[in-house]
C-alpha cells in the first residue's frame, strides 16, 4: 500500500475478471475508499460499468482513474447519500452515461464510538442519517427505474455489529441492525418485481482508515499488536479481512449467480459470528 493509495489497491486477490457482471451497470456509494473502492474495482474487472459515488474526491488516484487505468469503465459522481437529491443525481448519472442501472451498492457508512450515555444527540442523528437513512435514500432513488425495468439487485453494507451488537458502539450497531431489517423488508416488498435486496455483514476489515486508527502514533511492535488484536475479533480466522475479501461477497450477491438469494445478511467475517 502506498501513502497515495487509500486502499490496498495492489492486493493479489484481484486477478483478471471473468465477466461475472458483463453488461451490468452498477452504482456504488462510498467508492473512493476501503470496501467500496475494492468493490468498485472488482465490479469493473468483472465487466460492470461503474458509477463510483463518494462525498470525497481528492484521493489519488481517484477510483474512476484507477479503474480506467486498468481498462475498466467508470465515472465518478460526487454525491452525498444523506441527500435524496444527490441520490437522484447518482441514478441520473447512471442512466445518462450508461443507459441503465442494474446494481446499487449502498455502502457509504461510518461510526462514532460510545455508549448511549456518552453519545450526543447530534452523533446519534449523524450516524443514523448516514448508515440507515442513506440506504433508504439511495434505494428510494434507484427503485423507480428498477421497478420499471423489472430487474435489479441492491446490496447494502451492514456489519457483524448489526447482527450481534457490541460494546461502546451503540449507534453504529443500531444503525447497522436497521440496515439488516430494512434489507429483509425490501426483499419481501420487491421480490416479485424482479428486484433482489441483500446485505453484507463484514467483520473487522483492514481498510486504510481502520489501519490508520490502529497504528497511528505507535511503534511498529505496538502497531502490529494493535492490528493483531483487532483481527482477533474475527475469531475463527483471527485476522482482519482484506477489503477485496468483502468485495467478493458483494460480487456474488450483486450478480445473477445469486438469482435466488434475497433478504440475506451474508456475514463475511472470518467466523466472528460463529456460535452467535
Ligand atoms: N472496515 C470495517 O472493519 C468495516 C466492518 C463492517 C462494516 N463496515 C462498513 O463498510 C462500509 C465501508 O466502510 P470502510 O471501512 O470501507 O470505510 P471508509 O471510511 O474507508 O470508506 C467509506 C467511504 O464512504 C464515503 N462517505 C462517507 N460519508 C458519505 C456520504 N454522506 N455520501 C457519500 N459517501 C460518503 C467516505 O468519503 C469514504 O470514502 C461502511 O458502511 C462501514 O460501516 C466496515
Number of helices: 9
CATH fold description of the largest domain? Rossmann fold
Largest sheet, strands/sense/barrel: 7 strands, parallel
Q: Which strands sit side by side, in order, in the main sheet? A: 3-2-1-4-5-6-7
Q: Based on the coordinates given, report the CATH architecture of the largest domain.
A: 3-Layer(aba) Sandwich
The radius of gyration computed from the alpha-carbon positions, rounded to a whole number of angstroms, is 18 Å
Overall pLDDT level: 95
Quote the beta fraction. 5-15%
Write a concise keyword list for the protein shown above.
276 residues; alpha/beta; Rossmann fold; 9 helices; binds nicotinamide-adenine-dinucleotide
Concise synopsis of the structure shown:
Helix content is 43%, strand content 14%. With 276 residues, it is of the alpha/beta class.
Amino acid at each position: 500500500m502506498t501513502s497515495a493509495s487509500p486502499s490496498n489497491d495492489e492486493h493479489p486477490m484481484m486477478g483478471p475478471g471473468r465477466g461475472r457482471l458483463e453488461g451490468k451497470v452498477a452504482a456504488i456509494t462510498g467508492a473512493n475508499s476501503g470496501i467500496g473502492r475494492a468493490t468498485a474495482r472488482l465490479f469493473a474487472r468483472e465487466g460492470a460499468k461503474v458509477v463510483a459515488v463518494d462525498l470525497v474526491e481528492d484521493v489519488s488516484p481517484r477510483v474512476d482513474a484507477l479503474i480506467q487505468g486498468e481498462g475498466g469503465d467508470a465515472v465518478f459522481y460526487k454525491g452525498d447519500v444523506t441527500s435524496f437529491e444527490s441520490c437522484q443525481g447518482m441514478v441520473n448519472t447512471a442512466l445518462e452515461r450508461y443507459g441503465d442501472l442494474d446494481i446499487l451498492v449502498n455502502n457509504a457508512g461510518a461510526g462514532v464510538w460510545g455508549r448511549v450515555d456518552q453519545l450526543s444527540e447530534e452523533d446519534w442523528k449523524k450516524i443514523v442519517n448516514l448508515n440507515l437513512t442513506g440506504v433508504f435514500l439511495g434505494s428510494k432513488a434507484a427503485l423507480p427505474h428498477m421497478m420499471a425495468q423489472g430487474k435489479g439487485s441492491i446490496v447494502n453494507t451492514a456489519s457483524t455489529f448489526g447482527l450481534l451488537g457490541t460494546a461502546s458502539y451503540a449507534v453504529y450497531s443500531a444503525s447497522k441492525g436497521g440496515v439488516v431489517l430494512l434489507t429483509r423488508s425490501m426483499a419481501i416488498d420487491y421480490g416479485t418485481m424482479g428486484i433482489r435486496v441483500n446485505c453484507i455483514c463484514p467483520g473487522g476489515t483492514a481498510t486504510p482508515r481502520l489501519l490508520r486508527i490502529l497504528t497511528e502514533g505507535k511503534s511498529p511492535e505496538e502497531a502490529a499488536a494493535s492490528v493483531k488484536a483487532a483481527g482477533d475479533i474475527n475469531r475463527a480466522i483471527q485476522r482482519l479481512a482484506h477489503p477485496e475479501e468483502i468485495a467478493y461477497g458483494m460480487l456474488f450477491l450483486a450478480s445473477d449467480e445469486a438469482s435466488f438469494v434475497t433478504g440475506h445478511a451474508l456475514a463475511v467475517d472470518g467466523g466472528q459470528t460463529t456460535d452467535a
